[in-house]
Amino acid sequence: MGRHKMKQERILIAEDYNNQLSSNFYFAIRQLRKTLTNEKLGEVGLTLDSNVLRDILSGGNETETKVREKLKEQLLNGYQLPAVKRSNEELTEKLLKDFLIMATKAKSTMSDFRFIPIECFYVDAAKSIELDKQGEIILKEASNLYIDKPEQIEVYKQALKVLDEVKKLGDMADKYKCSAFGARGILTILPNDEMVIVPGNVVDCHPDGLWMRAR
Fold first, then answer.
1. pTM (2 decimals)?
2. C-alpha span between 84 and 180 (Å, rounded)
3. What superkingdom heads the lineage (predicted)?
C-alpha cells in the first residue's frame, strides 16, 4: 500500500491583510488602459481585443509577428518612388519601434501581478481592459494572510486560547465595573513586556468593591 501524504494545514489569519495590493493593482490597470489603446494599436493595423491583450501581457511574440507582417505588406504594396520608399521605411521602423515600446511598457505595468492568469484579463465591448470574476477572486485571495508552518500554527492556536481567556476575564471583571486591561484592568503589561496582575483592582472585584460603590 502506498503512503498517504497528509494534507498540510493552512489557516487564514487575516482577510485583506495586504490591502495595498488591490489598490496597486487597480492603479496598474488604469495605467495599462492608458498605454494600450485601440487607437494606438490601430496605427499598426491591430484591434484591441482579448487575444491581443493576453498575447502582449505574455510577451507579445504572436502580436509582434503580425505587426511586422502588416508593415512589410505596406512597403511591398506596389511601386514606390525611391524617396517615398525611404520615407515609408522610416515610418514603418518608427511604428514598429513605438509598438514594441508600448508592448514592453504594458507588460511591465502588470509585472507585479503575474500570479493572475492572463486568461482573467479581457477587453469588453467598449474596448476597455477588465479583470474577470475569477481574477478578482485570485486578487482578493492574494491579499489575505495565511500560515502553514507547524510552528506558526502552534503559536497562533495558543494565542487564540489566550485571547479567549482574556475575554472571559474581561466579562467576569465587567460585572464589578473593572476590565481585563486599562485603568481598572486586572492585568497590565510592564515596560519590559511582562504581563502581571494588578492586585489593587483584583481586590475591588466584588459587589461592594470601589467601582461598584461609585455607581
1. 0.75
2. 86
3. Bacteria
